[in-house]
Write a structure and sequence with these properties.
single chain; 400 residues; alpha/beta; nine-stranded mixed beta sheet; two-stranded antiparallel sheet; 11 strands; 14% strand
Length: 400
C-alpha cells in the first residue's frame, strides 16, 4: 500500500513539473506581477498617489489613491493577508478601484498595518515582537479612524466617506463602530463584502480539519518566535510565485478553492502570476489567532489572552467582552453568498439582525460565488459591483 501511495505522489509531482514547462503566460501579465499597486495604476493610465499616515500608536501606513479632486471620497479596505493591490489586480475592466474612479469617485485604498506596504513604526522594527502585537481590533481602533480623518482633511467640503470593506476589512470597521461609535457619523454608507463577525455556522472543510489544532499550532508559533504570518521575505515570495504560478498551479488552485469555496468558472487562472505575487501580503500571527478564537468559541469578542488575570487587567472582566454591534448605526449594505467557505450566510443573517441601520441586504444570486470572487471574479462587475453602484447612487441622491 505504501508503494502505491509513493507511486501516486511521484506521478503527481511529475505531472506538475511537466505542466510547469508547458504553462505559458501573456508577457503583460508577468510584467504586471512585478509591479506595485502604484505601478499597476499608472500603467493603465490612471493618476496614482501614495500617502503616508501615522496612527496614534505609531504605525506608518501607506494609503494609495486614484485622485479625483472635489469628488466624493471612497475608502477601500482589504482582507486578511491582502493589500491595496486586490482592488486593481483584474485591470480597468473589473477592478473596483478603477470602476469607482470611472464613476467619478475619489478612491483611497488603505494598506493596514503589517502588510508589505505598511511595515514601519515610529519605535519598533518588524523583527521585534512588539511590532506584531495586534489583531484586527487595532486596525479598527487605530488604522481606519486615522485614514478616515486624513481623507476628510484632504477632501474638499466632504464630511463623510463611502466605505467598502472585504472580509477583515469588515471585521475591523465593525470594531471601530462598536468601540468608537462617533466615527459612524463619518461614514456615508458602509458596504460589507463577505462580512466577518460570527463563525457559529462555519462548515469549511479545511477550517474544520485544523480547528482542533489551532491552539497547539499557535502556541508552537509563539515558542518559535513566529509573530508574522507568513514571513515577508524574498525567499518566501519567490517560492510562492514559482510554485503556484508554474510548478503546482493546479494544486494551488484546488487548495484555494477548497479554502474559499469551489468556483473554478469565475477564477481566471491566466492571472495566477498576479495573484501569487500580490497575495499573501502579510499580517500578524495574533490576528490569525483572534479569528481562531472566534471560530472555536463563537461570538464576536475582543482578543482572549488565555489568562483570566491578564483579561481582567485589560478589560475589567475575566472573559473578553463582546463587541457592541448595535453601536454600528451608520447605513450598512451587506453582500454575501451561500458558497463562501469563510463566511456562512447564516452568520451574516445573524449579524444583520443586530445591526440597527441595514439599508441593503443581498444574498448574491450566483450560487457558486465564493470568498475570493468578491474582488477577482471574472464577472464580478455583473454579479456584484453593478448592484453596489446602484446602492451608492441611491444613497448619494438621498433616496436610501
Amino acid at each position: 500500500m505504501n508503494g502505491i501511495y509513493g507511486f501516486l505522489i511521484g506521478l503527481w509531482l511529475h505531472a506538475n513539473l511537466v505542466l510547469s514547462n508547458i504553462i505559458q503566460y501573456d508577457p503583460c501579465i508577468l510584467e504586471d506581477a512585478q509591479l506595485t499597486t502604484i505601478g499597476l495604476i499608472r500603467k493603465y493610465g490612471y493618476a496614482a498617489e501614495e500617502h503616508k499616515i501615522e496612527t496614534k500608536d505609531g504605525f506608518r501606513l501607506a494609503v494609495h489613491r486614484i485622485p479625483k479632486r472635489g469628488a466624493q471620497p471612497v475608502l477601500l479596505v482589504h482582507g486578511l493577508e491582502d493589500s491595496s493591490a486586490t482592488w486593481v489586480l483584474t485591470g480597468p475592466c473589473c477592478g473596483l478601484a478603477y470602476l469607482l474612479s470611472d464613476r467619478g469617485y475619489d478612491v483611497w485604498m488603505i494598506n493596514t498595518r503589517g502588510n508589505r506596504y505598511s511595515r514601519k513604526h515610529r519605535r519598533y522594527h518588524p523583527l521585534m515582537r512588539q511590532f506584531w502585537d495586534w489583531s484586527f481590533h487595532e486596525i479598527g481602533i487605530y488604522d481606519i479612524p486615522a485614514t478616515i480623518d486624513y481623507m476628510l482633511d484632504h477632501s474638499e467640503g466632504y464630511k463623510q466617506v463611502h466605505y467598502v470593506g472585504h472580509s477583515q476589512g469588515t471585521s475591523s470597521v465593525f470594531v471601530m463602530g462598536a468601540e468608537k461609535p462617533d466615527y459612524m457619523k463619518k461614514i456615508k454608507l458602509l458596504q460589507a463584502l463577505a462580512p466577518v463577525a460570527y463563525f457559529d455556522n462555519l462548515n469549511a472543510p479545511l477550517i474544520q480539519l485544523f480547528k482542533p489544532y489551532f491552539g497547539t499550532i499557535l502556541q508552537l508559533a509563539k515558542l518559535l518566535g513566529i509573530y508574522e504570518f507568513p514571513p515577508e521575505t524574498d525567499v518566501w515570495n519567490r517560492l510562492n510565485f514559482q510554485f503556484c504560478s508554474f510548478a503546482f498551479r493546479d494544486s494551488c488552485t484546488y487548495f484555494l478553492m477548497l479554502l474559499m469555496g469551489m468556483d473554478i468558472s469565475q477564477f481566471n487562472q491566466t492571472l495566477f502570476p498576479l495573484f501569487s505575487k500580490h497575495f499573501v501580503a502579510g499580517s500578524s500571527t495574533k490576528s490569525v489567532e483572534h479569528y481562531a478564537q472566534l471560530v472555536e468559541k463563537g461570538g464576536f469578542f475582543k482578543f482572549d489572552y488565555g489568562n483570566p488575570t491578564v483579561n481582567f487587567r485589560k478589560y475589567g472582566s475575566y472573559n473578553p467582552p463582546q463587541y457592541k454591534v448595535a453601536n454600528i448605526n451608520c447605513k450598512v449594505a451587506l453582500y454575501y453568498s451561500v458558497n463562501d467557505q469563510l463566511t456562512s450566510f447564516k452568520d451574516v443573517q445573524r449579524l444583520r439582525k443586530k445591526l440597527p441601520n441595514v439599508v441593503h441586504d443581498e444574498l448574491l444570486a450566483y450560487k457558486k460565488f465564493n470568498h475570493l470572487d468578491f474582488t477577482v471574479a471574472i464577472d464580478v462587475k455583473k454579479l456584484l459591483y453593478d448592484s453596489m453602484f446602484q446602492v451608492m447612487e441611491r444613497v448619494d441622491k438621498g433616496e436610501l
